[in-house]
Amino acid sequence: MNEQNELPPHVAAPSPTAPHGPSGLGGGVGVDRVPGLGHSGGGSTLLGYIGIDTIIEQMRKKTMKAGFDFNIMIVGHSGLGKSTLVNTLFKSQVSRWSSGWGSEHKIPKTVEIKAVSHVIEEGGVKMKLTVIDTPGFGDQINNENCWDPISKYINEQYEKFLKEEVNIARKKRIPDTRVHCCLYFISPTGHSLRQLDIEFMKHLSRVVNIIPVIAKSDTMTLDEKNEFKHRVRKELETHGIEYYPQNEFDDDMEDKNENDKIRETMPFAVVGSDKEFQVNGKRVLGRKTAWGVVEVENPNHCEFALLRDFLIRSHLQDLKEVTHNIHYETYRARRLNDNGGLSDVKVTCQFPLTL
């Protein structure tokens, strides 16, 4: 059988003057012999296509089979359109109101955590999306320490993951219920942040990725919106509140340049809507007013499209990695250092040990 006929078109045949075959391995690696393979008397010549570039395809197939987990928390007082915005983001009915919460359910007197999971499939890729809602946040007269239930929930998910991780016979794939992202909704007052906003982000920015958004931004003029965004950024900087993407997590200059543009835009001034209207012969998502239709996906009307691209198309995986490598590792290190180890974490074994 002619061995040269088996080569792909982009792999050159060995030259008669080059006894060791083509220089380069898999299209660019400068190795043409592997000692110890082939004949017992020495190295063998690699004449075929190695296929290193298929590693990415192998990883893609395994990842698609396993699917993705993404857990997003929405925080803000009632009436800011949190559920509507999340439905608009994922173009699905994923809010608590469309998942078993009827009109008879009243907003609780204290903060109650409500998590709803859905499996969304697009282009053969499955993602388990969990939306964690916080009804009751900021709705009381006395909101002192109202962020404690939220902080407790986030830490409980870290603890749950840690307990699974330290098991001797741990699961092949640990269920990930950790909060990867927290969308914090700011009221469109046009003045400044409330003290509650400052205290919440100051406490929670240490344990979760916070993305501040200005809700219902169509209630402000363009000048009011820009002034408010600038004022919010200054207040966050003054109080030392870090929000995602943090400067210290930029891996290289390319990431820094991209994230700098995002940081200059934040907080995103957004409008959410799950209703369609006819505009210039097209069906668009929007909010109808006496002056026309505010188009949700039109960048000239609001920054919803920027938030969606940032959250889903460009930084979703990075949100998961920062959660695991930074926030979870910080929690894990603190727990391991407390009292010399995980004294209250039960280490279990699913099979008998023999000596």
Written description of the protein model:
Residues 66-338 form the Septin-type G domain. It comes from Oncorhynchus mykiss. GO terms for molecular function: GTP binding. This is Septin 3. It is found in: Cytoplasm. This protein is of the alpha/beta class and 355 residues long. 32% of the residues lie in helices and 17% in strands. The chain has helices at residues 55-66, 82-90, 148-166, 195-204, 222-238, 253-265, 304-314, 316-337; strands spanning 33-34, 44-45, 68-75, 114-122, 125-133, 181-186, 210-214, 268-269, 276-279, 282-289, 292-295. Strands 4-5-3-6-7-8 form a 6-stranded mixed β-sheet, with helices on both faces. It has a 3-stranded antiparallel β-sheet with strand order 9-10-11, with no helix packed on it. It has a two-stranded antiparallel ribbon with strand order 1-2. A hairpin with a 2-residue loop joins strand 4 (114-122) and strand 5. Helix 7 packs across helix 8 (316-337). It is globular, with a radius of gyration of 27 Å. The termini are far apart. The model is unreliable at 15-34, 36-40, 98-104 and 347-355 (pLDDT under 50).
